[in-house]
Amino acid sequence: MGEDGGGAFEIVTREDYSDVTYMLEVRHPQMAKAAQAGQFVIVMEHEHGERIPLTIADFDPERGTVTLVVQAVGKTTKEMQQRCREGTTLYAVVGPMGIPSHIGGAKKVLCVGGGLGVAPVYPQARAYARSGAKVIGVLGFRNKDVMFWEDRFRAVCDELIVCTDDGSAGIKGLVTKGMEQALAAHPDIDECVAIGPPVMMKACAEVTRPRGIRTIVSLNPVMVDGTGMCGGCRVKIADGIKFACVDGPDFDAHQVDFDDLMARLARFKPAEAEAMKKWEESCRMKGGDASAAERY
Amino acid sequence: MAKKKTIRTIPQARTPMPEQDPAARARNFKEVACGYTLENAHNEAERCLQCPDEPCVRGCPVGIDIPAFIQKIAEKNYHGAYDVITDTNLLPAVCGRVCPQENQCEGVCTVGDTLEPVAIGRLERFVGDMAIREGWVNRPYVEPSGFRVGIVGSGPAGMACAADMAKAGCEVVVYEAFHEPGGVLKYGIPDFRLPNEVIDVEIDKLRELGVRFECNTLVGRLFTIEQMITDMGYHAVFIGTGAGYPSFMGIPGESLNGVLSANELLTRCNLMRARDFPNFDTPLMPGRRVAVIGAGNTAMDALRVSLRLGAEKVMCVYRRSKTEAPARAEEIHHAGEEGVEFHWLTSPVEVLGDAGKRVRGLRCQKMELGEPDASGRRRPVPVPGSEFELECDSVVYAIGTNANPILGQTAKLKLNKRGYIETDENLATSIAGVYAGGDIVTGAATVIEAMGAGRKAARSMKAWLGLKDTDVVFAEAAPYEKRRFGFAPDEHGYARLRVA
Ligand SMILES: Cc1cc2nc3c(=O)[nH]c(=O)nc-3n(C[C@H](O)[C@H](O)[C@H](O)COP(=O)(O)OP(=O)(O)OC[C@H]3O[C@@H](n4cnc5c(N)ncnc54)[C@H](O)[C@@H]3O)c2cc1C
Ligand SMILES: Cc1cc2nc3c(=O)[nH]c(=O)nc-3n(C[C@H](O)[C@H](O)[C@H](O)COP(=O)(O)OP(=O)(O)OC[C@H]3O[C@@H](n4cnc5c(N)ncnc54)[C@H](O)[C@@H]3O)c2cc1C
Ligand code: SF4
Ligand code: SF4
Ligand code: FES
Predict the structure, then answer these.
(1) Which of A225, A294, B4, B359 is 20 to 30 A from B207 (CA-CA)?
(2) pTM of this prediction?
């Protein structure tokens, strides 16, 4: 925990899955015990950092660690990519946050993860498998080189369909194509979980809507506190407003207003671009780090 | 005391507070009110009539012995004044700055019947600031009682409860979800009203009492309230998690970019230091023309922060009139001086957006005051055909908050129908050994009320633990035999049982 937040949350393992995706395993025994599928943490890399939410992609009470899989998309996630190493620490890690996924009852479940969403869907797939459900996984990647965790999914899924944009692994096409294939083969699928970029989740919702299959998505609006205090994470569900950090992040896909979510995700675009530019410049000025900065 | 003072012999005018010039301060985050000088303080202390019936004391939610501390100031015994105040109030430098005095102590001051009331708050702040400058701490002699107390939330309620329980010899741990302690004092109230250093000093004083702060801990999710009792060895728990969960109105256009809650604006700016972006990473898209809906303290803070972030025009939109505005009179006055434009009797009906889903204006409706409603305030009713548009690129909601749902979701705590934690008159919750107070019980209130609740809960917790609630005995003052504070050994036998 760390007195006063100036905490030392140690990174015990780091692994890179591609030039933009990396895994951090963080020591936090208490959280490793408490975490459940569907929950997330808020991380601050350093004292001047931003609070960013990241899904708990795995947790191991025995090792006393939680695992985060991060996609480097902007200033904070790229800086973390550059600085976080085995043995370094994060300034703040708070969680588990959010309502755990409701796992129960379903007999055959379709778990869909796209890009950044592959990691967060894993604990849910595992929880369904443990609850006795048959699990069919559909994973989508850009290409073969950025694939990860196929092994972990194979261990918990009864069937796994991999989709790549260029067909370099599995079937060529988007996850929705994989879903159609799975649904054709298993008309008795009674629940679906889809996690990934909002456009993808929106498309997945449209695949299951006509079939009337209960579908859960995990929403990723911009957050600040993660405790229900700021309302920054509000999302439109049916006609009402919900706060994703305390009322979610899981919601019924058929009730979510995805267009609203996508519009709101863009609200800090200009500031994010400015932060990125300034950071890249400072990296270049530090010389030694220049090559790292240019990689992005 | 010399000759008895009367309303005619005291200085007639309330001593003004030295302030930063409005034009300059509207663009910086330095404190607006600079505090009384020694001379100011003496002059103002002379205005207190030392009323035997002490109406002011009853006006203060924690009952500070106001005439006594003012008398000490008049006698130039500042440390004495500090002792009097800290008997009841842990945070004089904070309350002197942020209490709505006009509705509390100063509202019932006898002098106020004829002249302007004694500036009790300013005098209190004067003493609190001097204590900080001089590094005064009244460190009690603490006899360890062997009890462990867990406190959830580090706002004023949690801080006050922590202080009292630590003084009673308990091992106290305060859990805070944020990465820094302080609650609303830190993330909400901006520096120009309450500098963060003031809070940090108070937190350090708690540390000196032995209180431990564990930040980055979301209670309810990392562990539950029940687990604190059953697994973590806490003998008693206090919940002071504040209100949170800001309200929106449900009018069209609320998800446009540029619409946000005052809590989000203030947290980004104050706690996350978005005002120093990009030196700090948290972004904020400050508006050029900002409309803030509401007229409470939170609204005033949002308005004045927006000005300081560089807005050209800042508008306060409130559906009732100035008389009904819940903010402290001083804040409304300060906001006006700094150039905030007030639209009283105005209610928003729609947030207008452009093609890029950004705010371009706020459609409003004029209101007039009708019959009094349940709160006794006259109900605003729309004036037909009075709709008009305010041009703005940012709309900030400061229309109140609802109960934070996390603890209700995760503990078997009885909640009232509005979702706040239900307690009995001793602030005990439905779980034995668990107490609650502050905004999470009452709904949004004031700093001093939250503090008062923290202290009241501490009294109940001491009774529950079988700790004798004696007066504080300070370390140097008493020889060992006289030290009466803390846990009395003969009370070990108290059964810790509570009949629900
Ligand atoms: C519940 C939840 C779980 C998430 N889980 C993961 C995960 O497991 N792995 C992962 O890589 N990413 C995850 N994200 C997204 C991640 O938080 C953002 O990618 C990150 O905040 C981007 O920060 P940045 O400074 O690097 O990029 P920026 O340049 O600041 O932003 C890039 C984009 O990220 C989004 N974003 C920015 N700030 C925030 C914020 N404070 N909160 C949320 N989104 C933001 C915006 O859409 C923005 O356009 C999750 C988000 C949420 C809400
Ligand atoms: C912008 C603003 C301006 C104000 N101005 C004034 C003023 O001028 N004068 C005045 O008297 N009052 C003012 N108030 C009201 C006053 O600040 C509150 O009434 C008071 O702070 C309530 O204290 P509290 O201790 O109950 O809660 P808070 O101060 O809200 O503190 C609660 C703390 O608990 C933490 N927490 C919440 N949930 C959890 C959890 N599950 N686990 C761990 N920690 C948790 C929160 O992060 C927070 O730090 C203002 C409020 C705001 C928002
Ligand atoms: S604590 Fe507040 S109400 Fe009480 S005397 Fe001080 S300023 Fe007045
Ligand atoms: S009511 Fe006013 S004048 Fe009388 S004791 Fe209190 S502060 Fe002094
Ligand atoms: S992140 Fe602030 S309310 Fe959800």
Answers:
(1) A225
(2) 0.87
